[in-house]
Amino acid sequence: MNAPAARSSLLLTFDAFGTLFAPREPIARQYLDVAARFGIGGVNEMLFAREFQRVLKEQSRIHPNYGKKQGLKPEEWWANIIHTSFRPFLPEHTKLPQPLIPTLLTHFSSAAGYRLYPDVLPLFETLRHARQNPNPTWPWEQTIIGVVTNSDGRVPQILSSLGLRVGGKDADVSFVAGSYDIGFEKPHPEIFAVAKEMADIRAGRWEFEHVGDDWDKDVLGARAAGWRGILLDRERANINAERRRVLSDLRDLIVSWRPSTRQSLAS
Hints:
Layout: E1 9-14, E2 21-23, H1 27-36, H2 45-62, H3 64-67, H4 74-86, H5 100-107, E3 114-116, H6 120-132, E4 143-149, H7 155-161, E5 175-178, H8 179-182, H9 189-199, E6 206-212, H10 215-224, E7 228-232, E8 246-247, H11 252-256, H12 259-265
Parallel strand pairs: 1-4, 1-6, 4-5, 6-7, 7-8
Antiparallel strand pairs: 2-3
Helix pairs in contact: 1-2, 2-4
């Protein structure tokens, strides 16, 4: 009788914002709610949202990756955005209240500002059970979970506050590869290469998958690094994506690992 074929191991990474979590309320509304605590009121939410998006886009163009190469700290980068976004809505020569910026940064570092998507905890519960209870029907010998994100250093804190265990191979998320710390943003292959290093992969046969909501940054970026890139499109809005590589629910990822469907998701 032939011995069963050795199983591969899997390094599975997720994007963070837009994939695992989203704002609890519209970002502009949360900004204005916090600002109201410091006496800033009467600002039109729609107009502020438009200005905030304009400033964010411009700041990202001038100082990409939170100003890493220009020597900015993420807190300074965000402070510039907050100051510039509020400026048109304040009386002339009025300064922002000093506690507003640190309060906003703290607010958006936890569950106060964000919520998990409904399919996230069920998926991680399945992954947790599979790793804690070895089963020959599970497709992977080992499963390491990480996050690869274009973000500053707050993502581990956000995930922890949302109920996921972060840090170490027995955690829900073993590591977070953030673009500011690494110095490269997706879709650059280097951020995926560093993710492999952070996973501390040992000998054996490994496969690499990355799931995210951005076709160019997540799917094409992963592919350029030699990974399998899978698009998460909960709203089924990405009409340009190759549908065989699209999930509408993270729980469908388990289905994609069945032998009958894995080939259709291969890069």
